C-alpha cells in the first residue's frame, strides 16, 4: 500500500468521523433525556449525553 492511498483512506475516515459526530449531536438535541448519575455528573440513559454538575 502506498503512502498516497493511506493518506486518502485517512481523509475518508476523517470525513466519516465528522459525519458521525454531527449525526450524534442531532440525536442528542432531539432526545427526551432521562438522566441518571451522581452529584458530579449525569448521563442520559437514551443518548449518552453527559451533563457535568460539579467542576
UniProtKB/TrEMBL annotation:
Coiled coil spans: 3-30
Keywords of this entry: Coiled coil
Upper taxonomic lineage: Bacteria, Bacillati, Bacillota, Bacilli, Bacillales
Protein name: Serine protease
Amino acid at each position: 500500500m502506498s503512502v498516497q492511498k493511506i493518506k486518502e483512506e485517512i481523509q475518508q475516515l476523517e470525513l466519516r468521523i465528522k459525519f458521525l459526530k454531527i449525526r450524534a449531536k442531532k440525536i442528542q438535541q432531539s432526545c427526551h433525556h432521562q438522566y441518571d448519575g451522581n452529584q458530579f455528573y449525569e448521563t442520559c440513559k437514551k443518548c449518552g449525553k453527559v451533563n457535568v454538575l460539579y467542576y
